[in-house]
Amino acid sequence: MTETIHNVDHAEISKFEELASRWWDPHSEFKALHEINPLRLDYIERAAGGLDGKRVLDVGCGGGILSESMALRGAEVTGIDMGAMPLRVAELHTLESGVEVSYRRVPVEVLAEEQPDSFDLVTCMEMLEHVPSPASIVDACARLVRPGGTVVFSTLNRNPKSYLFAILGAEYVMGLLPKGTHDYARFIRPSELHAWIRPTDLRTTDMTGMTYNPLTQTYRLDPDDLDVNYLVTCVRDSD
């Protein structure tokens, strides 16, 4: 197997392996994922021009919250992750829910060699900041999507505000995420993400931020606020 399989941080994988059994508990450490899922699902559906009948790849799918949601809207979904326990939880949940999703434990770079130009939509949500080489992930996503298809990324900006909100606030003050979920040094500025997108066949078509109001405990999308969480939509140019 190619050396790109080493684009995995085993310490990061271990964090989510330890919590995997609680992935589908909306009151657990994954509460925030459950709460933002409707927002990001609607954003993805709009970006892709609908999900019904689309062949979709969810990169870094974890326990399958987004994967199942897209399948429920009519997509044919494959979810991939390098964590064995989250994938097992995802598979078990499909048995309970009856939602059909195909899961694989495979590096995205390896899948890009196996199945280039194969998906109408590729999603990579909250994953780039957890790997040693996010540029390699971006490149693989670009190769996996078909010409004319859509790729959606989400990640965290790197600045003092994001450190305050995403780490001190979310992990230590409000307890929205387990302590140690994020490493600030791995947060990604939009300019850095664009630098990795530019050499590929992808073209950025939209950017929007996701904000959290601690008073109302609600999330919303805001295209004018990319300071903390943000989403990027790309289209692969047709050949």
Automatic annotation (TrEMBL):
InterPro entries: SAM-dependent_MTases_sf, UbiG_MeTrfase. Transmembrane segments: none annotated. The keyword Transferase applies. GO terms for molecular function: 2-polyprenyl-6-hydroxyphenol methylase activity; 3-demethylubiquinol 3-O-methyltransferase activity; polyprenyldihydroxybenzoate methyltransferase activity. The keyword Cytoplasm does not apply. Gene3D superfamilies: Vaccinia Virus protein VP39. GO terms for biological process: methylation. Pathway: Cofactor biosynthesis; ubiquinone biosynthesis. Keywords: Methyltransferase, S-adenosyl-L-methionine, Transferase, Ubiquinone, Ubiquinone biosynthesis. It is an enzyme of class 2 (transferase). Its EC number is 2.1.1.222, 2.1.1.64. S-adenosyl-L-methionine binds at R40, G60, D81, M125. It catalyses: a 3-(all-trans-polyprenyl)benzene-1,2-diol + S-adenosyl-L-methionine = a 2-methoxy-6-(all-trans-polyprenyl)phenol + S-adenosyl-L-homocysteine + H(+); a 3-demethylubiquinol + S-adenosyl-L-methionine = a ubiquinol + S-adenosyl-L-homocysteine + H(+). Belongs to the methyltransferase superfamily. UbiG/COQ3 family. O-methyltransferase that catalyzes the 2 O-methylation steps in the ubiquinone biosynthetic pathway. This is Ubiquinone biosynthesis O-methyltransferase. It comes from Thiocapsa marina 5811.
